[in-house]
TrEMBL record:
CDD domains assigned to the protein according to its UniProt record, in alphabetical order: Peptidase_S66 (cd07025)
Family: Belongs to the peptidase S66 family.
Record-given protein name: LD-carboxypeptidase
InterPro entries: Carboxypeptidase_A_C_sf (IPR027461), Class_I_gatase-like (IPR029062), LdcA_N (IPR027478), Peptidase_S66_N (IPR040449), Peptidase_S66C (IPR040921), S66_fam (IPR003507)
Domain of life of the organism encoding this protein: Bacteria
One of the Pfam families matching this protein, by short name: Peptidase_S66C
GO annotation (BP), single: proteolysis
Keywords noted in UniProt: Carboxypeptidase, Hydrolase, Protease, Serine protease
Record keyword Protease present: yes
Single annotated GO MF: carboxypeptidase activity
Length: 302
């Protein structure tokens, strides 16, 4: 069973770092205000305001900054500033041996799916949740509160309206997942995670519909769907299509493969690249219930 990092307490230090795309200090002003309102002390890593093309510093700088926060015993959580691309470029340069002896929360989503999966592969929970770069986005209040609750060890429960493609049933298992494109990228690497007996959640943005299908074919053929306890399908934002339409929506594509199996499926869950991006704890044992009234996901406090 994955280990749970200690819950945050008022006065704890949290670091903001860039593992992928660059951000400026000005970009993080709202996030700093929010975190200080939670009575946390904010430490900005050296990669904040660093720049190497589109990245928040070179690969070496980003790996060094993240490693320093991993190894600093005073830092009790690491918040990845934003996604984009770049975390897979540095993941193999990181040493988690010290982290294993003194785990702390790591939080982010999108490109940070790399860290969520890598940490779960190593036996640790982490948070898939909204990142500092977009703390101030309109409509994101609930997502922020869900992140706070996850960091401070409070229980979580989400209720989702019914969807026509839902498959009813009840599942219990550890949560795993994140961005579909990153899950595809991690397949066969040291960050790849088994899905058997777990509840998988998926989201993505800007993907061509044929590519969603291709990635689902890969998940299916590689056995990632076969032994799932349950499936949660989140936001598939701003889908793209070719001049000749693919002929299915993202949800219909996913249903094509999910319906081959018997596990319960929830569509329309508020997770992904939209303001209602509710925090999920990767590795936490959860209960998913899907029936005619809708879907419910819950798990205990840390």
């Amino acid at each position: 069973m994955p280990t749970t990092p200690p819950s945050l307490r008022p006065g704890d230090q949290v670091a903001i770092v860039c593992t992928a795309r660059k951000v400026s200090r000005e970009d993080l002003a709202a996030a700093i205000e929010v975190l200080e309102g939670w009575q946390l002390q904010v430490v900005l890593g050296e990669t904040v305001s660093a720049e190497h093309h589109q990245f928040g510093g070179s690969d070496e700088e980003r790996a060094r900054d993240f490693q320093q926060q991993l190894d600093n015993p005073h830092i009790r959580a690491i918040l990845c500033a934003r996604g984009g691309y770049g975390t897979t470029r540095i993941i193999d340069a990181l040493d988690f041996s010290g982290f294993a002896a003194d785990p702390k929360w790591v939080a982010g989503f999108s490109d940070i799916t790399t860290l969520n999966c890598h940490l779960l592969r190593l036996g640790h929970e982490s948070i898939h949740g909204v990142m500092p770069f977009i703390f101030a986005q309109e409509g994101g209040t609930d997502a922020l509160e869900s992140l706070r609750r996850a960091l401070f060890g409070e229980p979580a429960s989400y209720t989702v309206p019914a969807h026509a493609l839902n498959r009813p049933g009840t599942a219990e298992g550890e949560l795993i997942g994140g961005n579909l494109s990153l899950l595809q990228t991690l397949s066969g690497t040291a960050s790849d995670c088994p899905t058997a007996g777990r509840i998988l959640f998926l989201e993505d943005i800007d993907e061509y519909l044929y590519n969603v299908d291709r990635m689902m074919v890969h998940l299916d053929r590689s056995g990632k769907l076969r032994d799932l306890a349950g499936l949660i399908v989140g936001h598939f934002t701003n889908p793209q299509d070719n001049a000749v339409p693919f002929g299915q929506t993202s949800y219909e594509i996913i249903d094509t493969y999910a319906r081959k199996y018997r596990f319960p499926v929830c569509y329309g869950f508020p997770v992904g690249h939209e303001p209602t991006n509710m925090a999920l704890i990767c590795g936490r044992r959860a209960r998913l219930e899907v029936d005619a009234a809708g879907s419910r996901l819950s798990y205990a406090a840390g």
